[in-house]
Design a protein that fits this description.
The chain has 169 residues and is an alpha+beta fold. 22% of the residues lie in helices and 28% in strands. One of its GO terms (biological process) is proteolysis.
Length: 169
Amino acid sequence: RSQQPHSVIQRRLVEGNQSQLQGESPLVQALIHGQESRRKTSKTEIPALLVNCKCRDQELRVAVDTGTHHNQISTGCLSRLGLGKVLKAPGGGLAPGPPTQVEQLELQLGQETVACSAQVVDVESPEFCLGLQTLLSLKCCIDLERGVLRLRAPFPELPFLPLYQEPGQ
């Protein structure tokens, strides 16, 4: 258990021993350096593990977030996708006020389309988070060595975007 990637990274961060980074994959090294630099700055945190996907024919940068149970979508992303006004209340009518949940959201991961739901959150970054529930249902594997999010067959591997890439790059 203590040899799992997140435990190794966490232990090395606590120890502060950079010499132990030698031999680690570039992605693991970048994650550790990113964690250290985020501690020193008060900037808004940007998740380190981002993948590209599409929703309603628009590109999205999606965070892979095992610390969040449900998927999350930002209010800005919801508006950009044109979903703010099409949400329905449980009784079938239009929901009053700002939406809190999106159902049957179709995400295109590589060549495959996955239907999921997402909680609406009032933050702008990241615009969409894949939560643990969806990651488990897709039987995802976070492969830090190869720098990909691997989905169950026949789904593709999705490469992680470069760390701290600005939107539109």
